[in-house]
Amino acid sequence: MPARPHPRTHVTLLCAAVLAAVLTALLPAGQAHAAGRTVQGGRLDWGIKSSFQSYVTGPIANGSFSLTGGAATVGGSQFRFHSATGTYDGSSGAFDAGFSGGVHFLGHKEDDGTYQLDLTISRPTVRLAGNGGTLYVDIISKAKGTGAVTTSSQVPFASLSLGGIDMKGGGNAVQLNNLPATLTAQGAKSFAGYYTAGTALDPVSLSADVRVAATGSTGKPSASPTPSTSPSKSKAKKETSGRIEDGAVDWGVRRTFREYVTGAIAQGEWELSDGAQDGGALFRFPEGSGTYDEKKRTLDASFTGAVRFTGEQGLDLKLGEIRAEVTDDGKGTLYADVTSASKTGKAGGGGTGKAGGTDKEVPLVTFTAKELKPKDGLAQVTEAPAKLTAAGAEAFGGMYKAGTEMDPVSLAVALDDKAELPALPDLGSAESATPEAAAAEPKKAGPKTEATASDSDVPVLSIGLTVASLVAIAAAFLIIRRRRTPQTAATAAAAPDAPDAPDEN
Description:
By secondary structure, the chain is α+β, with helices and mostly antiparallel strands. Helix content is about 20%, strand content about 40%. It has eight helices and 24 strands. The chain has helices spanning about 5-35, 50-55, 185-190, 230-240, 255-260, 390-395, 460-485, 490-495, and strands at about 35-45, 65-70, 70-75, 80-90, 95-100, 100-110, 115-130, 130-140, 150-160, 175-185, 200-210, 245-250, 270-275, 275-280, 285, 290-295, 300, 305-310, 315-325, 330-340, 355-370, 375, 380-390, 405-415. The strands form two sheets. Strands 12, 13, 14, 15, 16, 17, 18, 19, 20, 21, 22, 23 and 24 form a 13-stranded antiparallel beta sheet that branches. Strands 1-4-5-7-8-9-10-11 form an eight-stranded antiparallel barrel. Strand 16 and strand 17 form a beta hairpin. Helix 1 (about 5-35) runs antiparallel to helix 7 (about 460-485). The protein is globular and about 60 Å long. The model is unreliable at about 1-5, about 10-35, about 215-240, about 345-355 and about 430-505 (pLDDT under 50).
C-alpha cells in the first residue's frame, strides 16, 4: 500500500499551484502593460531660468522673447513645449521623449539693429533612468564678447533629479512635477557663458501619454495624428472650391493679449466655436475652401471656426469667418468678422458697455507669403511674421497701434485629397503640472510627485484581490503548520519581529 502524503504536502502543493496560476495570469499582462510602450502626446513646462527672463526683458538688456514651433507661455514664467514623442519602458522605468517648440531671446540691441544677446532654445528632450536623467536641447547662441554664433543639436543642457521617484509602472500616462534641474558644463558653454556649471535652473514638469506599442513595433514612436479630410468631404469640396481640398489657418492672435485676457486685470477666458481648435499657443481655423492659382501663387480661401475673448473691463471680442488672401506679390492678408460688445473704448477696457455689432471682412493683419508654393500636394506658409493693420487696430479698440507685431500666421491648403495638413500641437490627455506650484522639496517619505497617473489601465482591483487571496492562503498554511509543529521556547526566541523596511531615499 503506497504511503499517504503528509497533510503539509497537500497544503504546500495547493499554495504552489494557486501561486503559479495567479502569476501566470498576472505577469504576462503586467509585462505587456509595462514594457514596450510608446510616448505619443504631452507637454513639458519649463521656465529655463526665470531670473534670466527678467534680465532679458528688464531695463538692462531691454530685450524680449518670442515663441517658435507652437510653444506657449503658461503660468507666470514658464514656457510650454508640446507634442511629446518617444518611448517608455515600464519594467525598467526608462523614459525618453522629445517635445516641440522653442524660445528666442533677444537683448542689448546694437546701433546696427543686431543684438549682443541672441539665444534660441528649442526641442527639449528628457531622458530618465535610475534616479535621474538629462534634459537635452537644440541651441543657437551668440557668445558674449566675440559675438560668434554657434548652432548645437541636442546638447546635454541640464541634469535632472528624480528624488527617489520610482518610474516603474504600467499606467497610461507619465506625470512628473517640478524636477530639480542643474546646468551642466556643456549647457553652461552653450548658454553663451551667462551662467556657470552647477547653476540651479527652473524645475521641469511634464506629462505624457503612453500606450502599448503595436505588435511588431520597432519601438520608434508613430507619426503624430494628422487631421485629414474624409473622402466624401473632399469630393464635395472639389466640386465647389477649385484646387483646394482642405486647409487650415493657425494663428494665436497675440501672445501678450492672451496673457492679458487670462491675467489678473481682465480675469477672463476665451471660447472656441464652429469647429475652431485650441493648439495651446495658437488657434486652428479649419476646413479651408476656395481657390489657389499655382502659376501666380495667389490664394483666396475661407475657413471655419471662431474665438471669443471675454473678461472684466468690458472685454468681449469675437473673431470669426476667417479668410486668407495672398496676392501675386507674395503679400498675405488675414480677414475676419469682428464682433464687439462695445464699439467705443478699448477692447480690453474703457468700453461703454453698450451693445456693439459685427464688422464684416475686417483686414486684421498682413503677412509675407512668398513661399506659398506646392510640395507633395500641399501649399503652406509656416510662422510668417504678421503686423496689425489700421483696421485691425480699430478692431482692438486702440489697444494696439497699426504696425504692431502680432502672432505669426501659419497657413496650409491641400491641393489634392492625398495631401495631409500639418498636425496640430498635441498636448496629451493627462492633466498638466500646476505652473504656480512650488518646487518639490525632498522628504524622508519621498516626494509627492507621481511618476504615473492614477488611472492606470492595469487592473488594480483584480491585483489587490489576488494579493489578498495569496496572503490568506499563506496565513492558512502557517496556521496548519503551527498546529502540526509544536512551538518550543527555542523556536519562539529565534523568530524576532521583522525589521522595518529600509528607507530607499
